[in-house]
Write a structure and sequence with these properties.
It is a single chain. The protein has 498 residues and is of the alpha/beta class. The protein has helices at 30-38, 42-48, 86-102, 123-138, 168-193, 201-212, 225-231, 234-240, 294-309, 354-365, 381-387, 399-412, 445-454, 485-495; strands at residues 2-7, 17-23, 27-28, 59-63, 72-77, 107-110, 157-162, 218-223, 248-255, 264-268, 270-274, 314-324, 335-338, 344-347, 372-377, 392-396, 416-418, 436-437, 462-466, 472-473, 479-480. Strands 8, 9, 10, 11, 12, 15, 16, 17 and 19 form a nine-stranded mixed sheet that branches. Strands 1, 2, 3, 4, 5, 6 and 7 form a seven-stranded mixed sheet that branches. The chain has a three-stranded mixed sheet with strand order 13-14-18, covered by helices on one side. The two termini are 24 Å apart. The chain binds ligand BES, manganese (II) ion and zinc ion. The site of manganese (II) ion has 5 residues, from loops.
C-alpha cells in the first residue's frame, strides 16, 4: 500500500473514505469534532441514535455526510479515552484496514493520528506504528498457493491526517522509517513461512546476494563447507553432516556509518529445518521446525530495512545456516566435536543444534571488532514455557546493551524480558569427556543454552534473544510474526541517533 502524510481540514479532504475516532459515550476525537462542526452536528446526531456509542470494536460507515468532501466517513469505536493503549489502537486499526480493504474504497484518509495514547510516546512513533500495523493487517503469504483470493477493490492508498501542522516534518521522516520497517518485517515473514524444501541454506545465501545486488553499501560473502572447514568450524559443520543440503555461513556487511567505526553484529540462527537429528523430535507440529531459521530471517529483514533507510551505522549480519536431520553421517549422542574457538563439545543431545552452529558464528564475529554482538535464535522450547508467546527471552553479558534492547522492545511493542545469566547456572554444562556438554539438566533450559553461548562471547559485549515463543504463531493463524525486527531496528536507530 502507498502511504502519505496529510494536513488540513478533515472536511475538505478528497478521499473515498475519511476515518475518524469515537470514544465511549460518543466522545469525538479532536479531528472528529472538527468534521462534526463542518457537518453542522450531523455526526453527533447520528451517534445520538445509539447505533454507535464508541465502544471498542464498533465501526460505522456513513455516506454523503453533509459538509464533508469525502464520499464516506467511517467511525471507529475506541472505548474509554483514558484506557486507550497501543494494543487497543492497533486492534481498531487492524479491523478498520481489513474492512476498508474488503469494501469499495481504494483510497482512505486515516484521521486517528490525533489520539493521545499512553504507551505511544510521540506522533513520530504513532505514524511508524500505524504504517507497520496497517501492513501487518494486509499481509498474506501466497508464494506457495496456486490460487490467491484477493479483494476485488483493495485499499491502495492510505493518507495519515495530522491534527497539528508542527508535526509534519517528523511525521514524514517516520513514514519513511515505518515503511522500511514494514518491508523488513514482511521479508522476515516471507522467509520464515517458506517451507524447508524451498528455503534451504543455499536459498538463504541466494537471498543475501540478491539483497546486495546494485547496492554500494552492502557486501555479501557466503562461506561454503570447505571454507568453514579451513576455519575450524567443527561445531557448525557437525550439524550439517546429517543433511544433504550443504551448510552456508552468510555474511552481510552494511557500511552506512563512518568508515572504520565499530559495527554492530547480528548473528541469526538459520536452521532451515530442525528434525532434531538422531535425537529425533516427536511428530506433532514438527512442520513448525521450518521456522527454526527465523532468527536468521530477522537478520535479513533488519538488514534490508537499514539499507532502505540508509541508516548511518555499520552493521554486519552473520547467518549460519544448516539443516538438522538424522542420517548415517549425522551427529550421535556422545560425539565430541571441536569448535572454531578450540573448545571441545560433547553432544549429549543432537537436538540442541542451534548453539552448535551459533558458537562458531559467534567466534567468527570476533574478527569484526564489534561494538556489540546480538544473536537472535529460536533456541529453546523452554523459553516458551517461561515466557509464552508474548516476550522474547533476553540474556546478556552487558547490562547497558540489555537495557537498550529492552527499551527498544517496549517502544515498539516487540518486547523482551531479561533472564539471569549467573555463573551458578554454568556448572550444568560440565562434561566428563569434553570442555562442555551441549545441554544442561532439567531446569532453566533457556538460561543454560545462553550459558553455552556465553563461553564464545567473552571478547565482546553480547546479548542473546531467544525468540522460540515470538517468531511465529501456531494454530489456525499459523505464520511468522517478523519479530524481533521492530525491536532490532529501533535499537539500531537509537544507536545512530535517528
Ligand atoms: N529449535 C529448537 C527449539 C524450539 C523448539 C523452538 C520448539 C521453538 C519450538 C531447538 O533446536 C531445540 O530443539 N532445543 C531443544 C534443546 C534441548 C534438547 C536441550 C529443546 O528446546 O527441546
Ligand atoms: Mn533442535
Ligand atoms: Zn533448532
Amino acid at each position: 500500500m502507498e502511504y502519505s502524510i496529510k494536513h488540513g481540514d478533515p472536511a475538505k479532504q478528497r478521499t473515498d473514505c475519511l476515518v475518524l475516532g469515537v470514544f465511549s459515550r460518543s466522545q469525538l476525537s479532536p479531528l472528529a469534532q472538527q468534521a462534526n462542526k463542518a457537518s453542522k452536528g450531523y455526526l453527533q446526531s447520528i451517534l445520538k441514535r445509539g447505533d454507535m456509542t464508541g465502544e471498542s470494536g464498533q465501526q460505522l460507515m456513513l455516506y454523503d455526510v453533509p459538509g464533508i468532501q469525502a464520499g464516506r466517513v467511517m467511525l471507529i469505536g475506541l472505548g474509554k479515552q483514558k484506557d486507550l493503549n497501543r494494543k487497543g489502537y492497533i486492534k481498531a486499526l487492524t479491523s478498520a484496514i481489513n474492512s476498508l480493504d474488503k469494501g469499495h474504497a481504494i483510497d482512505a484518509l486515516w484521521g486517528l493520528c490525533d489520539l493521545e495514547i499512553s504507551d505511544i510516546a510521540s506522533i513520530a512513533d504513532m505514524v511508524r506504528d500505524t504504517v507497520t500495523h496497517a501492513e501487518e493487517s494486509l499481509y498474506q503469504f501466497t508464494e506457495t498457493k496456486s490460487e490467491v483470493k484477493k479483494s476485488s477493490r483493495p485499499l491502495k492508498r492510505l493518507g495519515l491526517l495530522l491534527h497539528d501542522k508542527r508535526h509534519l516534518k517528523s511525521a514524514k521522516k517516520s513514514l519513511i522509517q515505518g515503511k522500511a520497517i514494514a518491508n523488513g518485517v514482511k521479508f522476515t515473514k516471507d522467509l520464515g513461512n517458506l517451507p524447508g524444501n524451498i528455503c534451504t541454506p543455499t536459498y538463504l545465501a541466494d537471498q543475501a546476494r540478491k539483497l546486495a545486488r546494485n547496492q554500494d553499501t552492502l557486501k555479501v560473502q557466503v562461506l561454503d563447507e570447505k571454507q568453514m572447514q579451513k576455519l575450524g568450524m567443527g561445531a557448525l559443520l557437525s550439524v550439517s553432516r546429517g543433511s544433504r543440503q550443504p551448510a552456508k555461513l552468510i555474511i552481510m556487511d552494511y557500511q552506512g556509518g563512518k568508515p572504520g567505526a565499530k559495527p554492530v553484529v547480528l548473528v541469526g540462527k538459520g536452521l532451515t529445518f530442525d528434525a532434531g537429528g538422531i535425537s529425533l523430535k516427536p511428530g506433532p507440529a514438527m512442520d513448525e521446525m521450518k521456522y527454526d531459521m527465523c532468527g536468521g530471517a530477522s537478520v535479513f529483514g533488519t538488514m534490508q530495512a537499514c539499507l532502505e533507510m540508509q541508516l548511518p551505522i555499520n552493521l554486519i549480519g552473520v547467518v549460519p545456516s544448516s539443516e538438522n536431520l538424522p542420517d548415517g553421517n549425522a551427529n550421535k549422542p556422545g560425539d565430541v566435536v571441536t569448535s572454531m574457538s578450540g573448545q571441545t563439545i560433547e553432544i549429549l543431545n543432537t537436538d540442541a543444534e542451534g548453539r552448535l552452529i551459533l558458537c562458531d558464528a559467534l567466534t567468527y564475529s570476533e574478527r569484526f571488532n564489534p561494538a556489540a554482538v546480538i544473536d537472535i535464535a529460536t533456541l529453546t522450547g523452554a523459553c516458551i514455557v517461561a515466557l509464552g508467546n508474548e516476550a522474547s527471552g533476553l540474556m546478556a553479558n552487558n547490562e547497558t546493551l540489555a537495557d537498550e534492547l529492552l527499551k527498544a522492545g517496549t517502544r515498539t511493542g516487540d518486547r523482551a524480558w531479561q533472564l539471569p545469566l549467573w555463573d551458578d547456572y554454568q556448572e550444568q554444562l560440565n562434561s566428563n569427556f569434553a570442555d562442555m556438554a551441549n545441554i544442561g539438566g532439567k531446569g532453566a533450559g533457556t538460561i543454560t543454552a545462553a550459558c553455552f553461548l556465553s563461553r564464545y562471547t567473552k571478547k565482546f559485549k553480547w546479548a542473546h534473544l531467544d525468540i522460540a515463543g515470538t517468531a511465529w504463531q501456531s494454530g489456525s493463524a499459523k505464520g511468522a510474526t517478523g519479530r524481533p525486527v521492530p525491536m532490532l531496528i529501533h535499537f539500531l536507530m537509537e544507536r545512530c541517533g535517528q
